[in-house]
Fold each of these.
Amino acid sequence: MSASRRRLAALGLTLALLTGACGGGGSAPDGSGPSADSASARAAAAGKQLARNTITPLAGAAPTPKLPVTVDSSDGRKVTVEDASRILPLNGGVAEIVFTLGLGDRVVGRDITATFAEAGKLPQVTKAHDVSAESVLSLRPSVVLADTDTGPKEALEQIRGAGVPVVVLDPATKLSDVTTRTTRVAEALGVPDAGRALNRRMNGELAAARAAVPEGSRPKVAFLYLRGSAAVYLIGGRGSGADSLIEAAGAVDAGTAAGLDKPFTPITTEALAAARPDVILMMSKGLESVGGIDGLVKIPGIAQTPAGLNRRVVAVEDGVLLGYGPRTPLVIDVLVDRIHAR
């Protein structure tokens, strides 16, 4: 599952746009808290941005990298980056960070998980989730950004052996990882000030998104990872990556609450009965792979859950749901509105 969870790819609206969509801060007229209308307005704005599948770079001129820099790599090495003129991110979420920092014109290739529009015309250097060292080296990158899930390891060794600096990052699996990874990417590319500016923007957006959670609403949400054509039917638990999003949206991760301590567990009638989700969260392609909601409720046990009985299913595009990049605040906006809908 690590390959399928490798952060399929992610950016955000500016705080001004998001707060503007909130109707002046999102409080009900009596000051009792965010109104349903404000949450819906935020979700509508976020949905439009996600549908465009584009990034929102930092305002102002693109930063100029100050190099060389030596940074810690998550594979235990210290890596010196002397040139950021030809950047190759091997992770979709990392690619979104690079583009949002304002360095997109320096990116020379993409991983299969970089699905946002700005990366669409770049040459792809992965087949499935495996990196082709030959494809990478043919693009003459000056620095490669990978994560600990990137493989095969032999390919990374071949890239290093050719003299290309490879900075390895920890995967992002929870909300707090977004700013940590942004900081590390910005430092590796010699633009730490831009990294801090992006983190301030995202922290503001996340705070505004979470402020719209209605008081007293704590639905149970199960994340299902389905690939019908491959007969993959899994329910998320602790560490799935979706659990942190669900909690940030003011809900309870049903798998974790049911005692599923592994990131993913095969779906069984018993597991679904224990989880009893009020809402099911999925990736869009996963829902399509089982024939939409009509096909989903035919999976044994689904129709007997409150979510199945009420057909409460929330689907988010594969490339952004677990991307844990600058578009994550938009995902929270959408989840807050749709998970708590009555």
Amino acid sequence: MQLRTALAVILGCMLLVLSACGGANGNNAGKAAGGNSGGEQAEATAPNPASDEEQRNVKVVLDWSPNTNHTGLYVAKDQGYFAEEGLNVEILLPGSGGAEAMIASGEVPFGVSVQENVTQSRLQGVPLVSIAAIIQHNTSGFAAPVTKNIKSPKDFEGKAYGGWGSPVEEAIIKSIMDLQGADVGKVKFLNIGDADYFTAVKRDIDFAWIFYAWTGIEAELRGEPLDMLYVKDYSEQLDYYTPVLVTNEKTIMDDPELVKAFMRAVSKGYNYAMDHPDESAQILLKAVPDLDKDLVVASQTWLSPKYKDDAPRWGEQKREVWQNYSDWMHERGLLEKPLDVDAAFTNEFLPSE
């Protein structure tokens, strides 16, 4: 997937979100296959051991179109883990305002975002809280066809970068170029919006920011090898959580048992996806049959071990990861003030293993 974050959307819609939150008692590499939006359903069929009267209807919104970042949600639905918790979960695609706006306003209690969006949102007074890291380490980076001969950030000089116009993009590129004494002023920045990565690098640009688990794997399947520069390899501060599961402060305060039940089921879903990548890929394909089968299977194989990686359990978040990235953003003028890190995330609702 080309790395898509919802930063621009968040900043553009922040006043609307804050207004919605007040009226209710008050996502890169965001990030995925395709570009569907509009709050549509994107569901899997699941066993339902409880009657409709016993089940509680709950919605969760994705950050982008369904992909292997989301597999654990579809597994939890398909395998009946949500139903076991008394939940009838509806998986939605984001509306035009983005997933964060839907979650913060209380339109839906849960959703998928990324650490940079939660950080930006909280500094704008938007009450999002991260409740799990879907992937432990940042799998995004700058990718270029090997024919472009981009082997290090120094090689960005004289090249064209294609992105979506977020200040974070140039800040990260400058940060890793500075480490090599390179000049970011020699990079041509182009806003390519939703343009297909493979088309853009043949026509308009030399490199872009992607998630390897999707676009990188697709490049392998196409026989179009990439040079991949993972941002985490250049700075510990850039090894942030992307994506994350989020809720809002009101849901945590008013209905903590719902959050616990939801997270018990989701944790089972991602643990299943870690242990059974082939079966999990088929579950995702069953729920979203328009996805490319070969890409889903290969992506799931690559990504499944990375959900938990070196963490003691799936979903675990470290305070220093949140502190490091927010410090990096503040140092570069992307945040007006430091983040209250302890309010931005919690491990409280993760089941013990």
